[in-house]
Amino acid sequence: MKLEIPYGKGKVCAELPEGYAVEVVLPRAQPAAEDPAAAAMAAVYKPLGDVKPPRAGQTVAIAINDKTRPVPHEHLLPPVLAGMRHAGVRDEDVLFIIATGVHPQMAPEEYRAILPEDVLETYRVVCHDAADEAKLSHLGETARGTPVFINSDYMAADYRIAIGNIEAHQFQGFSGGAKSAAIGLAGARTINRNHAMMSHPMAKLGTYEENPARQDVEEIGRMIGIDFAVNAILSPEKRIITALAGDPEAIMRQGIAEVRRIAQAPVAAPFDLMIASPGGHPKDINIYQSQKGLAHAASVTRSGGALILCAACPGGSGSADYESWMMQPGIRSHQDVLEMFAREEFRVGRHKAFQVSRDAARVRATLVSELDDEFVRKLLLEPGADLQSAIHRALAELPREARIGVMPAASATMPVLSAEGIR
Which of 20, 157, 296, 393 is 20 to 30 A from 45, alpha carbon to alpha carbon? Predict the structure, then answer.
């Protein structure tokens, strides 16, 4: 069987020997919108929930995701901007803020990677800095004790918009809605406190109403006062299937049902070998992002089994804190990571080490990437020279009756063991 696995902006290929039971686990096939621009326009002009458009004379701030998210701004933004102009909002009164959260800052020369040229030529664009507390506004605390610090430029605007995607998330349950602003434009203290909830048993893939981390995000969104949100649901090829717009919580309620219908994939039993990709660029831009694919794939890989993750990772680890924390002399094993992380105060960045080790302590994880082998080993992953050799090595340790799973779009797939049931 020939495999073609998304990898960076291309693919990696390999052959699986005959005689093995192989199952490809993918989101349900769903046609992309024939006219994505028309789909976005229809959503914006028929919004969900009780929302009002901006008015002439108002200032508008728009939260957009950074380069780690494949948001189709070229389709989602035009109807939003046209609507604002029709309402009398001046171009000079509109500010785009790149919602990086605690991800690395984007330099101005990188903005064209996420925004159309005409937007860059017409509007002001800035990048959020979660560490610059002088540029954050304190809004109080959530019911769960999260101190809410949000980008001051966003809070100063008369009208606030959030743009993003609705998709499965390993501990928020789902991305989308308020999250682009509530986390993407938050201060480090806010993000640390919210993400510390990832250890809660209900903070997991595919949960929403009962998920404390996600419901904390919804409360932060209400405290911010997000007037309008536009979200897309994308196919594994990153094309728009559905666009939704309106009140952030209203589009989440409708969008989650659609994502579950598309992304949930039944699996009869855990696999002995899983071959996975986060889904190619930008899902595999660095280890920080690629780990999400690892988590989804590991959830249906048996304990003691093998997992090969194909992720180019041209951006390295994706977190200076994660990287430096892993280089400590006291960390030599996944168990060291788990024990040290449990002893320390929660910090975003190093939480990625915990997430990797949580799964890699249970399955034998190999990373096929562009990264230096020694660097990969320091992050406690086994480097794979290429996919074919990684497969041969894994199969040499497995019986002929081994079950093999393939997840080409792991970050966008919600695998569900049959015993757990599809919702």
Answer: 157
The dihedral region occupied by 351, where left means phi > 0, alpha psi between -120 and 50, and beta the remainder, is alpha
Residues with Cβ within 8 Å of residue 8, at least 6 apart in sequence: 280, 281, 284, 312, 314, 370
Residue matched to tokens 């390999």: 14
Residue 21 neighbours by CB under 8 Å, 6+ apart: 401, 402, 403, 404
CB atoms within 10 A of CB 200: 14
Of 268, 80, 82, 237, residue with least CA distance to 160: 80
Q: How far is CA 54 from the centre of its chain?
A: 29
d(CA 349, CA 317): 10
- CA neighbor of 283 nearest in space, from 362, 160, 422, 167: 167
Give me the tens of pLDDT residue by residue for the chain, a chain 423 residues long: 899 999 999 999 999 988 898 999 999 888 999 999 999 999 999 999 999 999 999 999 999 999 988 999 999 999 999 999 999 999 999 999 999 999 989 999 999 999 999 999 999 999 999 999 999 999 999 999 999 999 999 999 999 999 999 999 999 999 999 999 999 999 999 999 999 999 999 999 999 999 999 999 999 999 999 999 999 999 988 999 999 999 999 999 999 999 999 999 999 999 999 999 999 999 999 999 999 999 999 999 999 999 999 999 999 999 999 999 999 999 999 999 999 999 999 998 899 999 999 999 999 999 999 999 999 999 999 999 899 999 999 999 998 889 999 999 999 999 999 766 556
Cβ count within 10 A of residue 49? 15
